[in-house]
Amino acid sequence: MRVLFMGSSALAIPPLDGILTSHEVPLVIAQPDRPSGRGLEVTSPPVVLYARERGIPTYQPSSIRVAEAINRIEALHPDVIVVVAYGKILPREIIKIPPLGCVNLHFSLLPKYRGAAPVNWAIVNGEEKTGVTTILISEELDAGDILMQESVDIYEDDTSITLGERLAKIGKSILLSTLEGLLHGTIVPRKQDSSQATHAPMLQKEDGLIDWKRRAKDIRNLVRGMQPWPSAYTYWKGRQIKIFDVDVEEQSPCASPGEIVCVDDAIRVAAGDGIVVINELQMEGKKRMQASQFLRGTRIKVGEVFGG
What we know:
Methionyl-tRNA Fmet Formyltransferase, Chain A, domain 2, alpha/beta, six-stranded antiparallel beta sheet, Rossmann fold
């Protein structure tokens, strides 16, 4: 089968790798190169680097809605278009091109967590399960008919990075089964129940700001879910501190939210309910490190306060 693939992030690589084992991929479409990292070096999306290593042509239009992009896709006569973590909404003109339709692999159990950041928000919201879903793409975001789904447990120590990697591997298998089902006409699409839909909007920098009045468990979920960007963060003496790993102690704090209650090999901070134990962090302008290492070079005192 002739499969045109559209994806940008590293999460799209396992599904693309699976497709290449049994289908022809004439082109990979991804978002344009962008500045990345602390040095803001212009970098290609991970999928583009992967495709180039395998000799697959790539195309990175600034807009997928322009005539040039639409005409190029039409000229390839794909049987199906597969979209995984691409980052742009397809126009009607593209949706109607392939005879078998446009298939999206989405990292949630739709209709829950429609949107750009389903993995992140599932963890932030304390979900115990999520999953992968393949749908036929419609003009409404993530609202197309469901083709296949598989549920996945969210582990207590999962971050959005580890969970995303696991979902991508499971999604690889589901996507291949979906394509086989479409090819042989054995899949019966089913409508989503939009009354059950929830949303997972694109992450903003301010989403990572810690509100110390929240429960310690909620703060831990935020830390796990805001990786790798924007990271959960707070402020101390006007300087930003990113926080990457915490534990929770259920005891009731005898301190105000955000107040540092203990400094030993970790930093213990009072939350609205419970204590947040900071194990790994990064001060603005410094390297990421364990709290014990951080404390050898930075004097933080009990009674001082973290806050936005």
